[in-house]
Amino acid sequence: MTGKATDLVRSGVEARQAVVGSLRLFAPRIRIHPALLGPAVKPRVLSSPTILIFDSGLGGLTVYREVATARRDARFVYAADDAVFPYGGMSEAALVTRVMAVMENLIAAYRPDLVVVACNTASTLVLPSLRARFAVPFVGTVPAVKPACAASTTRLVSVLGTDATVAREYTHALIRAFAAGCDVTLVGSARLAALAESELRGQPFADADIAAEIAPCFVDNGTARTDTIVLACTHYPLLIERMRRLSPWPVDFLDPAPAIARRVVELIGPPAEGKPGAPARVIFTSGRPASAALEASLARFGLRQIAAERFDTPRVSA
């Protein structure tokens, strides 16, 4: 990395030390709520299923890309609850109410065979309620702590998420259960998700903005350095190439999307041969139309035949 980029990372460390928490993990394994890990859903083989991908914004596109590759025959509905983006600024009670109401509308309108909640914040908080209320199977997104710690050589792992995700007890429980002796550094970012959205919408920003957010993830304790960073927000893989360029040393950035796609296939089977999927439908709960720059970004994710529409939720408040 260049000297300039190194200076950006160093200044980011100094600016953001207050939001970093380190956990030395020797606690015994604890029971994780089964509604978050996923219930014992009987797998089915579905031909041309309808799959709903849901996120607060556009981070779920990284998940959509993987799931669409795994089930090319599916009909996809991508729903972005951008009317109240980002979720991290909402109280837990308001977030549960919001997601439950929007999901009720989406399931009634599109009758999906499977729903992917492509949002760590919503998954760690709302999945139990969703699974209790709706019969459709849900696949959630939670921080990939277990595989990250299993793969780490230096035993120094960082979890980079929104402030809400890294503060949530479920994230801490995952670490206590699965860190296996690793030192795990939790890093909360208040800006990265919004920066990723800006990039998709063609609104440029400086490398320094990213460098300041990721800098605390890189820990050097004198004998070892961080070698694995869990991307605990689906927006973050949108910036992964810039993150790699700005890293002070090489690390593995762990994207949860491939594992989510594998879970989808486990639940509804592989794609049917010779059956192309229908054009994906993209929904923005705000009703705001997509700009030309955003349409171009959606096309890069394979959404070239977009059936965009308004999806208003006037009875749902943030």
Compose a concise summary of this entry.
By secondary structure, this protein is α/β, with parallel strands linked by helices.
Can you put this structure into words, describing what you see?
With 318 residues, the protein is an alpha/beta fold. The chain folds into two domains: 141 residues, Rossmann fold (3-Layer(aba) Sandwich); 152 residues, Rossmann fold. The protein has 13 helices and eleven strands. It has a six-stranded parallel β-sheet. The chain has a five-stranded mixed β-sheet with strand order 1-7-6-8-9. Helix 3 links the parallel strand 2 and strand 3. Helix 1 packs across helix 10, helix 3 crosses helix 12 and helix 4 packs across helix 5.
Q: What keyword list fits this structure?
A:
single chain, 318 residues, alpha/beta, Rossmann fold, 2 domains, six-stranded parallel β-sheet, globular
Topology:
Elements: H1 3-16, E1 20-24, H2 34-37, E2 50-55, H3 61-70, E3 75-80, H4 92-110, E4 114-117, H5 120-133, E5 138-139, H6 145-151, E6 156-162, H7 163-167, H8 169-178, E7 183-189, H9 192-200, H10 207-214, E8 228-232, H11 240-246, E9 252-254, H12 257-268, E10 281-284, H13 292-300, E11 307-310
Parallel strand pairs: 2-3, 2-4, 3-10, 4-5, 6-7, 6-8, 8-9, 10-11
Antiparallel strand pairs: 1-7
